[in-house]
Design a protein that fits this description.
This protein has six helices and four strands, in the order E-H-H-H-E-E-E-H-H-H. By secondary structure, it is mainly alpha-helical. Helix 1 packs antiparallel against helix 3 and helix 5 packs antiparallel against helix 6. About 25% of the residues are buried.
Length: about 325
């Protein structure tokens, strides 16, 4: 009962090669999903470290406000300040306490998100501090275009283009007759038995005989295949352009975060000096309490910004990892 089709015009060959390309495309998609998952898990982990650092800064700031309230209360009793200063300090303390509650809530939510990504029940994660994370001080600039070939979505688009190419060849082969060899009938095609396949193929190809009843269907199939190949080509070009843009954006983000961190460190150094000086001046009655409050608010904001910029530096490395296909 077995039969074989003589693959004179490459229909079987092109179908097989197209199937190989489809398999390779599916494997590339699998790697794309895996790379995306790894990048998402890494980003979730470092977000957790950033929230930990911001919580620690807020708690230290809360202790500072409690000390300020005690100092201002003593100055009030000594007649060097008024009740408004004490109330303002207490209001700032309550504001920091609210921020701490928000951060604690965000940490729990982030731990739950990380648990879900890892397929675990919600739980706490043992982790280090953000300041202890070690990342490269330099990244390769001027990435060659060939490095983007590692991206699974680029490879997937490339294999889709290969698959479309072979699909077009398959569609073209339908314009030619097919010959089948079976044990019971011998050489045959749809219209009947062939006595001499060599002579028949020579005459059919020489006179460009096309299957009469399927000509309209074959033309439509060919037109669709060519359109799909053109679509695959455009998709491949766009995927390559998008890949280059993502890699470039990741490098720019990393460079910007590094520069911002240098500015953050300098700003924090100046603000710490400003806080210390205004506190000393206030105790000696040479500065207003508003100057102290403003200096401490600015310091808190600068420290939180530095933590966020440190996270953005790490995030840009994760982005680059993903942009280059893992």
């Amino acid at each position: 009962t077995a039969s074989w089709e003589v693959d004179i015009f490459g229909r079987k060959h092109n179908t097989k090669e197209g199937a190989k390309a489809a398999l390779a495309s599916a494997e590339a998609y699998q790697q794309a999903v895996q790379t995306q998952l790894i990048a998402t898990i890494a980003d979730a982990y470092y977000t957790l470290l950033m929230l930990d650092e911001q919580l620690d800064i807020s708690k230290r700031t809360l202790n500072t406000w409690e000390e300020n309230i005690r100092t201002l209360s003593a100055l009030k009793r000594a007649g060097k300040t008024n009740e408004a200063a004490v109330l303002q300090a207490k209001a700032n303390k309550v504001n920091v306490e609210a921020s701490i509650l928000t951060l604690e809530k965000q940490i729990i939510e982030q731990e739950n998100s990380l648990s879900a990504l890892l397929g675990l029940v919600p739980q706490e994660f043992e982790r280090n501090e953000l300041s202890e994370q070690i990342f490269p001080d330099t990244l390769l600039m001027g990435l060659p275009l060939s490095s983007l070939v590692n991206r699974p979505d680029v490879r997937q688009a490339e294999y889709k283009l290969v698959e479309a190419f072979y699909a077009t060849n398959v569609a073209r082969s339908y314009f030619y007759p097919t010959i089948t060899l079976s044990g019971s009938v011998g050489w045959s095609r749809n219209e009947g038995v062939i006595i001499n396949p060599g002579d028949w193929i020579f005459n059919a190809v020489g006179s460009l005989v096309q299957p009469i009843f399927n000509q309209g269907k074959n033309k439509a199939r060919m037109k669709i295949s060519e359109s799909q190949r053109q679509e695959a080509l455009l998709n491949f070009k766009q995927t390559l352009l998008d890949a280059g843009t993502e890699a470039n954006n990741a490098l720019i983000s990393w460079q910007t975060a590094r520069k911002r961190l240098d500015s953050d460190k300098l700003q924090i150094m100046y603000l710490k000096g400003a806080v210390l000086n205004t506190q000393l001046l206030m105790k000696n009655g040479q500065a207003d309490y508003l100057e102290v409050l403003t200096a401490q608010k600015n310091l808190l904001q600068a420290e939180l910004t530095e933590t966020n910029d440190r996270y953005l530096e790490i995030q840009s490395v994760i982005m680059l990892y993903h942009a280059l296909g893992g």
